[in-house]
Design brief:
The protein has 460 residues and is α/β, with parallel strands linked by helices. The protein is built from 17 helices and 10 strands. The strands form 2 sheets. The protein has a 6-stranded parallel β-sheet with strand order 7-6-5-8-9-10. The chain has a 4-stranded antiparallel β-sheet with strand order 2-3-1-4, sandwiched between helices. α7 packs across α13, α8 crosses α13 and α14 runs antiparallel to α15. The termini are close together.
Length: 460
């Protein structure tokens, strides 16, 4: 069996193609149904957002499953299989599991660390679970995926350090005025940077956002999304007196915010500070404003320090999340190995109990004078012998199998104890028997781990 992910995202495909392949409603249900009825796909989860469409699958043939999924998505979306194959990626084994975890943590998002994707991943898994598309393997895997995603949100600040100029401006404004709650913000320009600044300000809890633009219709469209008030550029001078923060991002020739406008706006403010953030090139705000009392003017160059600090801190936080991902993959691999060793442990315990039971029956036959109390004492002590004899070998074969990711240890162990409960698909298992004999002492004695443990074969 193999774990794979077949998908496309903003890293691999343009937005117009992602829109066509995006799955929702009946299309999502149709794809899950087709995957559930496939002989080559054993378990599956489909994640589809505005920035990615991905099929996670447990398969018995990577090549056949990859082709099946491409064909299914082509037929569902109306995009040719050739066009899809040029923009879709295939990840297998450990890379597929790690990718799922990185996606859930927001490391693969446009805005690194964004939290919405974790809820979308949870919903995708829940939908697949309710459709009957998941089994023991994916139930456990996505439990680990969601756990790692939750840890990234609660134990790090990876999503709190965006590196855009717009966010840096909002962050700086918040520091200067001591928080944005209850403040009035004026954003001039409804282009990409202005719109982003307006959205950040709204998300940070400002009392009111005023969005001015040369084209009122464009300002109105964005304002309606975030609960802001739209106005034309002609209205900027009149509302300056109400603003605590001004973010200007038009990039038009000449100064959109003149020193005379700001000087007039200061009348009647009673010393209330005015923060001017010029994120346009060429600059929108007259540099002479910096000399006015209680006015704090910053341009793009001033924001570079904030951006650099965010870049460094985000990299540090992302490294912490990557460590969580690695630990999550390791935990899932250990679980896979444990599931395959469990039958051996159960069989070994059953064999020990059967031997103890036979011995007890023989003793009772040969010593009929034993009282019920004597029989209970003998039963207790013979079971203790069995448990003590098996405890260390069982623990060690479990640890060795997990540490190596190699079921040949368990297979050899089963052969030594005459148990036919562990199967391995490794054709080279017999040829490695001699090499494994030298570790038998570790199975029956003490185990010491050196270096990094190997992963379960499903993840290789």
């Amino acid at each position: 069996m193999h774990i794979i992910v077949v998908g496309m995202s903003h890293h691999s495909a343009p937005v117009d193609l992602r829109e066509r392949v995006s799955l929702s409603g009946d299309a999502h249900s149709h794809v899950l149904t087709q995957l559930g009825g496939s002989r080559t796909v054993l378990e599956s989860v489909v994640l589809s957002t505005c920035n990615r469409t991905e099929v996670y699958a447990l398969v018995n043939s990577t090549h056949a499953a990859h082709d099946f999924i491409l064909t299914l998505l082509a037929n569902t979306s109306g995009v040719s299989k050739q066009d899809l194959s040029e923009h879709m990626y295939l990840k297998q084994g450990e890379a597929a599991v790690a990718h799922a975890m990185r996606v859930a943590c927001g490391l693969d998002s446009i805005v690194v660390g964004e939290t919405q994707i974790l809820g979308q991943m949870r919903e995708a898994f829940q939908t697949a679970f309710e459709a009957g598309n998941t089994g023991a393997m994916f139930n456990r895997m996505f439990r680990e995926v969601l756990h790692v995603g939750k840890r990234a949100q609660t134990e790090t600040t990876v999503g709190q350090h965006p590196v855009s100029v717009s966010y840096a401006a909002v962050q700086l404004a918040s520091k200067i005025v001591g928080g944005l709650e209850g403040k009035v913000a004026l954003v001039i320009g409804a282009g990409q940077m202005g719109a982003l600044a307006a959205k950040h300000l709204s998300a940070q809890g400002v009392k009111r956002v005023l969005l001015a633009n040369r084209t009122l219709a464009k300002a109105s469209a964005i304002a309606s999304e975030i609960g802001a008030q739209a106005l034309s550029l002609d209205g900027v001078e009149a509302v300056l007196k109400d603003a605590d923060i001004v973010v200007s991002a038009t990039g038009r020739p000449g100064h959109t915010v003149r020193a005379a406008y700001v000087r007039q706006a200061l009348v009647g403010r009673r010393g209330r500070p005015l923060v001017l953030l010029d994120i346009a090139v060429p600059r929108d705000i007259d540099p002479a404003c910096a000399a006015l009392p209680n006015v704090y003017l910053y341009d793009v160059d001033d924001l570079n320090g904030v951006i650099d600090a965010n870049v460094q801190e985000r990299a540090r936080q992302a490294a912490l999340v990557e460590d969580m991902v690695a630990a999550g993959v390791r935990a899932f691999s250990d679980w896979l190995t444990e599931q395959e060793v469990v039958p051996l442990i159960v069989a070994l315990r059953q064999k020990g109990e059967a031997i103890q039971r036979d011995v007890m029956e023989s003793l009772v036959r040969k010593l009929p004078h034993l009282s019920e109390r004597d029989q209970k004492i003998i039963h207790k002590h013979t079971m203790s012998i069995v448990n003590q004899l098996l405890r260390e070998p069982i623990q060690n074969v479990k640890e060795l199998s997990i540490a190596s990711g190699d079921l040949a240890y368990a297979s050899l162990f089963a052969q030594l104890f005459g148990i036919d409960s562990v199967k391995t698909d490794d054709a080279a298992a017999e040829s490695r028997a001699v090499r494994l004999m030298d570790v038998l002492s570790r199975v029956l004695g003490e185990v010491s781990h050196q270096g990094q443990p190997n992963l379960h074969p499903v993840l290789r």
